[in-house]
Every structure is written in C-alpha cells, then in structure tokens.
TrEMBL record:
Keyword terms of this UniProt record: Membrane, Transmembrane, Transmembrane helix
Gene Ontology cellular component terms for the protein in this record: membrane
Keyword field contains Transmembrane: yes
Protein name, as recorded: Transmembrane 4 L6 family member 1
C-alpha cells in the first residue's frame, strides 16, 4: 500500500471540502444574497463563529497542503539518516491531521448548535428580533408550519437549515478523512513510505 499516494488523495479531497466550507459560511452572512442584515448586526450568534471559514476552512487547508506535498516531498532525513526522511514526513503529517481534526470538529459542533438553536429573525408575534425556536431544541426542524414565524429575513429558516446542514456534513467528512490520515501517517511512518522501482 502506498501511504504517500493515499495522503495526497486525502489532501486533494480536503482542499475541495475546505473551499466549499468557506463558501457555505460566507453565504450564511448574506441571507437571500442581501448584505443589510450583516451590516445591521441581525445575524445569529452561531453564524458569526466563523466555523466554516476558520474551522472547516483554513484549519483544514493546512493539513490539505501538507498531505498534497507529502508524496513528492524529498525530506533530508531525520536524526542524521537520509533513508528515514520520508518516514519522518509521514509521522509529521499526523500532527497536521490533528489540526484538521480540531478545525473540522469545531465546524461540526457549531453547525449542530446552529441547527439546534435556530435562526435569529424578526417575528410578527414579538415584533422584535429574537431566537423563536430556542426552546424547541431542534424540534422546529420538523415543524415546517412554524417556519413562517420568521418574517425577516425572508426564508431565513430554510437558508440557515440548508447551509448549517451542508457545513455539518462537510465538517463530518473532513473529520473522517483527517482521522484516516492519522492512521495512514502512523502506518506510513512506521513501515516507510512505499515507493516503486521506477520512482527510485
């Protein structure tokens, strides 16, 4: 099994997922494509946590870059031995994977809290900006008839549910891929990076 190729494959997947996560988080800031709610500070507290930009985005881009470079990385060795350089590189990739685990975990937690808590919106009952679904502990997700309580921004419940669900899924996939790379990195470090005779 070629551990380096596996790492590079994971790296490219993480790169795509991280970019999608950043885009999804940016869209959360602009319900229905409108900028006024962000400028008027009428966004939910979990929208402003930057979980998709920082957590599922930049903190996952770091291991993605490390994994992509790993296969072609000509490491100068460790402990003065050139022959173990690639094994050391594989073991060091485990540290990068933990950064990705932390970032994706943050994205998962905030996305789950955002879904559970519900959106921040202007309601016709209270005539004020509130969190109308806080008490439901996520039960509102299946009570579609109550979604109309939020008057502004329009369709904010659908907007938030869709994007938080996407971020939750992206974070979950990133978490799994980083965990796989931890195992791959440990095995590759212990057994050495596989290399064909043509590459030598």
């Amino acid at each position: 099994m070629c551990f380096g190729r596996c790492a590079r494959c994971i790296g490219y997947k993480l790169l795509i997922l991280a970019l999608l996560s950043i885009v999804a988080n940016i869209l959360l800031y602009f319900p229905n494509g409108e900028t006024r709610f962000a400028s008027e500070h009428h966004l939910g507290k979990y929208v402003e946590c930057l979980h998709g930009i920082l957590g599922g985005g930049f903190l996952v881009l770091i291991p993605a870059a490390v994994f992509i470079r790993l296969h072609n990385d000509d490491c100068c060795g460790c402990f003065g031995r050139e022959d173990c350089g690639k094994s050391c590189a594989m073991l060091s990739s485990v540290l990068a994977a933990f950064v990705g685990i932390f970032g994706s975990g943050y994205c998962i937690i905030i996305s789950a809290l955002g879904l559970s808590h519900g959106p921040y919106c202007f309601t016709h009952l209270e005539r004020n900006w509130i969190y109308p679904f806080t008490e439901s502990s996520g039960g509102y997700l299946f009570e579609y008839n109550k979604w109309s309580e939020c008057q502004e921004p329009q369709n904010i419940v659908q907007w938030n549910v869709t994007l938080f669900s996407i971020l939750l899924a992206l974070g979950g996939i990133e978490f799994i891929l980083c965990f796989i790379q931890i195992i791959n990195g440990i095995l590759g470090g212990l057994r050495g990076l596989c290399c064909s005779h043509e590459e030598v």
